[in-house]
């Protein structure tokens, strides 16, 4: 969907990584984040350095603490700006960038998310003298070529046109509009067809000037290097960067004013007249990433809809055959988040599937979680945890999340203790505290003429058509 270039690592590197998998950073009995150093360069860039010598790889994440929440009136500015960094530097064209990265098997990307933008690179450590200067140039001296930008726009618009053909691709966009209405967290990261069509290279250049600056940037390096030597290299490439056009933003204060729990149940009905299925999302306001109960809630969500044997999947897929899959999750931001369960079904079974999903969700309060179920989920979560943090790329992403969302190494170091401490009694309290129960918000995408009367019983109905540009919905 997104305009990007991505090259596979060489077969030699792939083999080395496969061999290294047997040397897990985390043992099942002991979760400990590897040591890392933090240094702030004189120009304000924060640097994270974590040595990992299992394979001769280096992962660099250059993180700018501005994302889609900082978009102006044109949705997708942060994303267009990030991806424009891939279109060339002052000294290298896009083709030259691609050829250079391909020649050494480097995997390079640039993307925006809701609250940050990132250039990520994974390459052989021996090539750092060649790759680091290019990454620095991408960050500090983007080419901003008109022809390249117009080409990016067309590719991006073409991908956006295809999105709404599959409601599952856009269901969370609509649900976010419903729950986060009027808040920057409702912003659509990739923008819309209309916003991208209206965007010019000057919009991107202005976003860059306002947000890309050393005091708004962190560099994360994980891999096979000496920290002292790597710090010198990073300082040489990035330490002189300045941006006098950088504007200090109050966006964090605006984000902290999070949406409150809704006062009435609402249903956003998105008409797709040619649909043979109804896609639905049900939930409400969730938690920020640094919530101290984050780990415990992952365990509880595993029971509800976080694995194949979850309640939701068992009831809606295995036992009733109403769908091919049902799940639930907490998605998070820095100051708040969403909780939702989601699935899809044939148009004619819409009411039955919605009722069963709600009945299954209500088990959290009506029957609660017994010890055997809780113990099974705890074992599953502990077993799934170590493989998420084995490689330097995974560890770089972890440090990136810690930097942006404000949680610390206790997430890793106390993970098993937090899982083990979860009891049936505590689980009941967390369910009551964090899982939305009253005034649930519901999104249904499907053939409105056939399901309009069905969804009325679930709340106040707001109706839009999927052909309407963007994902905006009427004020509610």
Textual characterization of the structure:
This protein is of the alpha+beta class and 476 residues long. Helices cover 42% and strands 17% of the residues. The protein is built from 19 helices and 12 strands. It has a 6-stranded mixed sheet with strand order 1-2-6-3-5-4, sandwiched between helices. A hairpin with a 4-residue loop joins β4 and β5. The protein is globular, with a radius of gyration of 23 Å. The two termini are 31 Å apart. Residues 1-29 have low confidence and may be disordered.
The average pLDDT score comes to 92
Q: Which percent range fits the helix content?
A: 40-55%
Distance between the termini: 31 Å
**DSSP strand tally:** 12
Quickly give the structural class.
alpha+beta
Which properties best describe this structure?
single chain; 476 residues; alpha+beta; 19 helices; 12 strands; globular
